TrEMBL record:
Protein name per the record: Phosphoglycerate kinase
GO molecular function: ADP binding; ATP binding; phosphoglycerate kinase activity
Pathway, per record: Carbohydrate degradation; glycolysis; pyruvate from D-glyceraldehyde 3-phosphate: step 2/5
Organism: Opalina sp. OP10
SUPFAM superfamilies, per the entry: Phosphoglycerate kinase
Gene3D superfamilies in UniProt: Phosphoglycerate kinase, N-terminal domain
Length: 124
């Protein structure tokens, strides 16, 4: 896979700071670590534009498509993937129009598997 995400995203884990695995790309991490069954937290910029008519239809899914090679690598390694992202900048708590439902649906379509999303995660 050739993707700016696959080549530039740094692997993150619960390993101590300075541990060699913290400096690996996802591709190298997969080749050196056994990820089957392990939870891998991936922060992705999936803040895609939505139709301005209130329909919440994604008008450009490029950012989601760019994340797919990295997520597929992790999926093929049988990792349990947790993706962290956002839509827009909520001003006060939860804003219904900024929920990531359309992103989760499109991500599932592109990955070929269902994506379960949490409804109650917000904060710093």
């Amino acid at each position: 896979f050739k993707s700016h995400l696959t080549n530039n995203v740094r692997a993150m884990s619960a390993l101590p700071v300075g541990h060699p695995a913290n400096k690996l790309t996802v591709k190298k991490l997969i080749s050196q670590e056994k990820l089957a069954g392990k939870v891998v937290f991936v922060r992705c910029d999936l803040n895609v534009p939505l139709a301005k008519d209130g329909s919440r239809v994604i008008t450009d899914d490029t950012r989601i498509k760019e994340a797919i090679p990295t997520l597929k690598l992790l999926k093929e390694a049988n990792a349990k993937i947790v993706v962290c992202t956002h839509l827009g900048k909520p001003k006060k708590g939860i804003e219904e129009g900024l929920r990531v439902d359309p992103v989760a649906t499109r991500l599932g379509d592109l990955l070929g598997s269902p994506v379960i999303k949490s409804n109650d995660v917000i904060g710093d």
